[in-house]
Structure formats: structure tokens, C-alpha cells
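C-alpha cells as discussed.
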């Protein structure tokens, strides 16, 4: 595929570590402005791993980022119709809230893989260097940094952007903070051909998202295209408790996790007991809510590398918004990258702190002492506010 860029500008190059949503949006915005950019990605190719489930893309950040990246039309083409519906039930299967998708929520659902493919297709292939696992960073003079990769190659850059996730290798240049386990983990499962093979479960999940909760535990299930239900089975347990489960033995792991839901109706426990993929453990980590750093010449962070927080629908949206806003800042200060970085960080810090505080609060709403009633009340208030 040939992608044309009519800009004739020559500006300082930018190096991005990580080809996630935030890094790809940043690269796209810079590319549109004629700013040289290279992404180094540890994965071997676009298909090296599955890209997870659905994302709800918010009007206030994710959709703005895609508009800045001039990809709104492509985004609208992959929206899952009906995906914004949500349902909250208790541990007996009683429905507490049933909110259909009427097109007014402002957070359309897309598959993560579909969205990433749009971003990848918007960039020339040579912008992304695959199979480049970062092993070392050395700070040079004048704000430059030298990157060393596992294959022995190196790269030197004036502007380094870490978009390398929760356990970022770029972050230690700026901050001593490390992610901490928040006391909750989820087990990821899938059901296929659900309308035929698991009709009762498909019925209770509905067309969008379904939350079946009790204090400290629950199922978060999403209906996906092609007759699929994708579930996160969440538990408030210590890291040591999960570490004792042998996830190398799927049957044993499923049995132990399922035992925590004894007495729950079969249409819910099917989400774990009948999983058609091996269960995958996802421990939840977070950085401090007020995570910040002193400016260091030539380097910054976006996405989870900057503000890792519990999953509350904000992660990909914030990462893309970070990427778009940093891209704009660099374009607007094309001959002074330090002013661009400072401008970006000044606005990003309070934005991410507010989002992290909300994510922390949402985690308590989801699995705290008042689950599932707190979530039903929160969603009802949000619905009333949209009227």
C-alpha cells in the first residue's frame, strides 16, 4: 500500500518505543505534519499476538485523537452496532440495570485489533521497525539517547517517547515509580458460537457488556462480533493466592477459579467452566495516582508508561489522546522540541491524575462492598445525566 504525504518540511526526527495505540497515533500525527518518525517495536510482526477484546472510544478523548489523526471515517466503519448496551446483574442472575444501545452514549465499541489495523494502515511500512526489543538506554550529551536492542543494533535520538506499557524500559529515565499490584486479577476466557452452544449465557449477556457482580468477585463479559463472548472473571485476592494456581494446567486453573463462584447460576458460571480457550491470568497493576516527573531533555512518556491505572475504559483512550496532543505540540514547536515536551507534560499530568483517581474509584464501585448495586446506581446516574 502506498501512502502519500505532500508535506515538504524537514524537522527533527522523533523516536517512539512501542507500537501500541498511543505510539501509532503519535506517529500518524507526526507523519501528517512531515516530521520524521520511527517506531521500534519488540513484537516480531503485526500478527505476533492477539490484540484483546473491545474498546469503547470516548467523545472526550479517543474520538478527538482519531479526528486529529484524520482517521474518523475509518473509525466509524468498524463500530460494532449495539455494542454500547450494558447490563448489570447480581450473583443470582437478577437484572438490576438493562441499558440498550440507543446511539446516545458517545462511546461506540470497536475491536482493539480492528482499530490497531486502521492505525497501522495509515503509516508507511518503513516507519515501524519490528522485532526490536529494547535492552538498554544510555543518556548522551545535549539530551540525546542511545538505544540498544536485543539484536545488537543501536539507534540515537534527539526526541525519545516511551510508549512501552506498564513495565516501561523508558520510564526509569524519568521516574523511580514502579507499578504495584492493586489486589485484583482477572482470568480471561472465551466462548464461541454462543447463540447455538451457550444460548442461556448469550441471553443473559445480551448485545453489549454484562456485569455479574458480588463483593470482591464477578464476571465482566462482552458480546463480540462473530458470535463470541469475551469474559474477564475478576477476583479480589492476594498476588500469592493467584501465584499458587497452576495456569499451565488449564483444567486445574478453571476448577479453582470456578470454585469461587459456587452457587451462582449455570448461565453465568458457563463463562468460566466452558471456556474454549485456556484461561489467561491478568493481574492488575497501577502507578501512583499523582505520578509525575521532573522534565528531562529529549524524553517523555505516553499511555500506560506514563499513567498506568486500573482498567476503567480509559487506557486506550488516554494513550491515543496523549499521542495526538504530543504530536500537535511537536508540530507547533517544530524547532524547539523541549518546549513541545514541556507543553505536553504540563497538560497531561493533571489530566491523567484525574483519570487515575476515577479509575481507582470505579474499581471500588465494581468489586467493593456494595457490588453490584453501586455499579447499577452509577450507570443509572450517568444515563439520567445524558437525558
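Sequence:
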Amino acid at each position: 500500500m502506498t501512502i502519500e504525504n505532500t508535506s515538504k518540511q524537514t524537522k527533527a526526527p522523533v523516536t517512539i518505543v512501542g507500537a501500541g495505540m498511543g505510539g501509532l497515533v503519535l506517529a500518524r500525527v507526526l507523519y501528517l505534519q512531515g516530521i520524521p518518525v520511527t517506531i521500534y517495536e519488540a513484537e516480531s510482526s503485526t500478527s505476533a499476538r492477539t490484540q484483546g477484546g473491545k474498546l469503547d472510544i470516548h467523545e472526550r478523548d479517543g474520538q478527538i485523537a482519531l479526528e486529529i489523526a484524520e482517521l474518523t471515517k475509518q473509525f466509524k466503519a468498524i463500530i460494532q452496532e449495539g455494542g454500547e448496551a450494558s447490563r448489570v446483574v447480581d450473583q443470582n442472575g437478577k437484572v438490576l440495570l438493562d441499558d440498550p444501545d440507543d446511539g446516545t452514549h458517545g462511546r461506540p465499541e470497536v475491536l482493539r485489533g480492528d482499530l490497531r489495523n486502521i492505525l497501522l494502515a495509515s503509516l508507511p511500512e518503513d516507519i515501524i521497525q519490528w522485532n526490536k526489543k529494547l535492552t538498554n538506554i544510555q543518556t548522551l550529551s545535549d539530551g540525546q539517547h542511545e538505544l540498544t536492542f536485543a539484536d545488537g543494533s543501536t539507534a540515537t535520538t534527539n526526541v525519545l517517547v516511551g510508549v512501552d506499557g506498564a513495565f516501561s524500559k523508558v520510564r526509569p529515565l524519568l521516574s523511580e515509580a514502579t507499578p504495584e499490584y492493586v489486589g485484583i486479577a482477572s482470568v480471561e476466557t472465551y466462548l464461541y458460537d454462543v447463540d447455538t452452544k451457550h444460548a442461556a449465557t448469550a441471553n443473559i449477556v445480551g448485545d453489549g457488556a454484562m456485569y455479574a457482580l458480588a463483593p470482591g468477585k464477578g464476571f465482566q463479559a462482552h458480546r463480540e462480533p462473530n458470535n463470541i463472548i469475551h469474559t474477564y472473571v475478576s477476583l479480589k485476592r492476594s498476588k500469592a493466592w493467584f501465584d499458587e494456581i497452576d495456569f499451565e494446567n488449564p483444567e486445574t486453573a478453571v476448577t479453582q477459579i470456578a470454585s469461587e463462584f459456587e452457587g451462582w447460576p449455570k448461565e453465568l458460571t458457563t463463562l468460566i467452566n466452558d471456556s474454549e480457550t485456556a484461561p489467561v491470568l491478568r493481574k492488575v497493576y497501577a502507578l501512583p495516582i499523582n505520578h509525575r516527573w521532573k522534565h528531562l531533555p529529549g524524553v517523555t512518556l505516553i499511555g500506560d508508561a506514563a499513567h498506568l491505572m486500573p482498567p476503567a475504559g480509559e487506557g486506550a483512550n488516554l494513550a491515543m489522546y496523549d499521542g495526538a496532543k504530543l504530536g500537535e505540540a511537536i508540530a507547533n514547536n517544530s524547532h524547539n522540541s523541549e518546549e513541545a515536551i514541556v507543553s505536553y507534560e504540563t497538560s497531561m499530568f493533571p489530566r491523567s491524575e484525574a483519570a487515575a483517581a476515577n479509575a481507582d474509584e470505579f474499581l471500588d464501585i465494581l468489586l467493593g462492598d456494595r457490588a453490584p448495586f453501586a455499579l447499577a446506581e452509577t450507570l443509572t446516574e450517568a444515563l439520567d445525566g445524558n437525558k
